[in-house]
Amino acid sequence: MSTGSLPISGNAQLKANPFLEGDIWFVPFNNFILQNDTNPESRKLFHSTDGGATFNSLTSIQEVYAFGFGMKKPGTNVASLLVYGKIGSLESIFVSYDLGLTFTDLGTVNIPEGIVGNIEGDMKVQNRIYVSTGCRGAWYGDVNTSLSTTQVQNDSNRLFIYPNPAEKSFSVKLLPFIGTKKVKIEIFDTLGRKVKEVILENNSDMINVNDLKIGTYIVQINFNETKYSSKLIIE
């Protein structure tokens, strides 16, 4: 796709990869006005490797509302690509260390209420993220990537929580899940501190959260040597 055929508005975001010459990234609209736009192309992330002469849209993520760059992953020469958007039905902040081929869900980030307008990573502190919002100020947080799911590419083999938001209790569904096998459920706050641990006897058990404060948490299951995590909101 040539630069002239890109869908463009006065609120487009254009950013250059700080560590790679000619590596340009673009989204047509920012999140403040995206809700009023019906063009599916407006939700895509476009990438150029020739200084902006041509662009291709990423297929690894379906919708992008804001994006930015962060510190290089140790041992590599590739900047971390931070994206607030949607993969499948999961809306979250994601990071990619391979120029958008795959993404990791940074579900430990406590996204403030309100619209996320911009996101950037710290160039000196690994996994530190800054977020600007509509009428909610600027926020930052350090991400514990050990709690994040790995290479989110679709919704299969994921952890589902319902109801979510929850008030007194919730249940989980993990696909695939062997109902007769006990699994450990761990709940972490947004600082990565474990606040609750229970043993799930079967797939329909309810987990009581009366003892937890209102806020955002991460529910994690270790199943068949794989970690699955998902965001939980308690109201």
Q: What report would you give on this structure?
A:
The protein has 235 residues and is mainly β. The protein has one helix at residues 31-34, and strands at 13-16, 24-27, 46-48, 56-57, 63-72, 79-87, 90-96, 104-105, 116-121, 128-133, 138-142, 159-162, 169-174, 183-188, 194-200, 206-208, 215-223, 226-234. The strands form 5 sheets. Strands 1-2-3-4 form a 4-stranded antiparallel sheet, with no helix packed on it. It folds into 2 domains: 3-147, YVTN repeat-like/Quinoprotein amine dehydrogenase (Methylamine Dehydrogenase, Chain H, 7 Propeller); 159-234, Immunoglobulin-like. The protein contains 1 helix and 18 strands. The model is unreliable at 146-157 (pLDDT under 50).
Can you lay out the helices and strands and say which pair or pack?
Elements: E1 13-16, E2 24-27, H1 31-34, E3 46-48, E4 56-57, E5 63-72, E6 79-87, E7 90-96, E8 104-105, E9 116-121, E10 128-133, E11 138-142, E12 159-162, E13 169-174, E14 183-188, E15 194-200, E16 206-208, E17 215-223, E18 226-234
List keywords for this structure.
single chain, 235 residues, mainly beta, Methylamine Dehydrogenase, Chain H, Immunoglobulin-like, 2 domains, four-stranded antiparallel beta sheet, elongated
Give me the secondary-structure category. mainly beta
Number of domains: 2
Mean pLDDT: 75
**What best-fitting shape do the alpha-carbon axes yield?**
elongated
Compute the separation of the termini in Å: 45 Å
Question: Would you kindly provide a brief summary of this structure?
Answer:
By secondary structure, this protein is mainly β. Helices cover 2% and strands 43% of the residues. It folds into 2 domains: 3-147, YVTN repeat-like/Quinoprotein amine dehydrogenase (Methylamine Dehydrogenase, Chain H, 7 Propeller); 159-234, Sandwich (Immunoglobulin-like), CATH 2.60.40.
